[in-house]
């Protein structure tokens, strides 16, 4: 029976083309506006590693001075000082651990047709690649010995490797970076987590910044400056070593534990570490030490701002207005078919059958509105992505939102058709037959 009603719905779309086009267009515009906004919000609020989110943990200490501090104040920064980061690395807690800083510099290609150019990247420890499951196209990460010795080794991204060497495997070759020769140990394949969570502070969650990676020990040995956020609440000592010994926070740190059940034990260890540091005269604010998993970390940093959420609510408000207009158009469309309903009721059709028929017709309208709304949403996302590189990352529709578009359109049309369909079912057959 549904197939028969569906055919009737398709046929009835042609009975009043102008009214049908107006309903479909009204519904499509509302769906496109809400879906395009919801798609961006969906991408921005996504979990880049849902299968191990609870096992990736970020520690935060408050090492600010007592001067100007009031109990209950939030920490000055969500990064760590060099001293704390190195102590946590040496502590050996968790299955893996990494500290990371941002870098900027220039490379001097071997090819004479390419002039030296600026690049940006990161300096983590070796565990970084396994922790975040970064795929390799060629080679592998550097060794633990390279981490300890601060060796001049480098991992390139696929894009930078192809720019420098084309499709050739560059592993084992040397690349001059910031005046030093680095040996290439590997090339990672395309890896673009959204949001870009691993080095989010100081760069932004939707920026493409990492073109290469070198050991943090190598960056420190060459006295490289941090490219990102650096927060100093007091003056550091003279020279680069004075900066390393200071309470300046500029390193982002990650733990990976074997299971989420290991989190309390890691928290206890961090509390013990903080207590030992207080005995040495540090961490005098005595604030609770925080430990965030990946999802909590993104929420803590407010990756999805209130403006984005407000935009989504406004878009759904617009969809509601479109639904109200659609209800009025459906009432007008169904009211002129009262004689048809009267004849069908007189011939024995029940109110339930009339309800199913008209509701199926509204679903057909919703399907047509969904198809048009999808095209309009894709066009809107395409225009949005042209505005900036950051918007190009988030303004893309995946299969989840593709399905949601059709479901939303059909559900909206059915919802809008409930009142007109109920009104159509109330037709009294005798009155309609007398009027003919």
Helix fraction, binned, reads 40-55%
**Given the C-alpha coordinates, what overall shape results?**
elongated
Low-confidence stretches: 430-434
Radius of gyration: 30 Å
Tell me the major beta sheet: 11 strands, mixed
Termini separation = 29 Å
Helices and strands: which structural class?
alpha+beta
Number of domains: 2
Portion of residues in beta strands equals 5-15%
By DSSP, the count of extended strands is 11
State mean pLDDT (0 to 100 scale): 81
What's the helix-strand series? HHEEHEEHEHEHEEEHHEHEHHHHHHH
Can you characterise this structure?
The protein has 436 residues and is an alpha+beta fold. It folds into 2 domains: 2-45 and 306-435, no CATH class; 53-300, no CATH class. The chain contains 16 helices and 11 strands. The chain has helices at 2-12, 17-44, 82-91, 127-131, 144-149, 158-165, 216-221, 239-245, 263-279, 294-300, 306-335, 338-346, 351-385, 389-394, 399-425, 429-435; strands spanning 56-60, 80-81, 96-108, 117-123, 136-139, 153-157, 174-177, 180-188, 212-213, 249-256, 290-293. Strands 1, 2, 3, 4, 5, 6, 7, 8, 9, 10 and 11 form an 11-stranded mixed sheet that branches. β3 (96-108) and β4 (117-123) form a beta hairpin. The model is unreliable at 430-434 (pLDDT under 50). It is a multi-pass membrane protein. This is FtsX-like permease family protein.
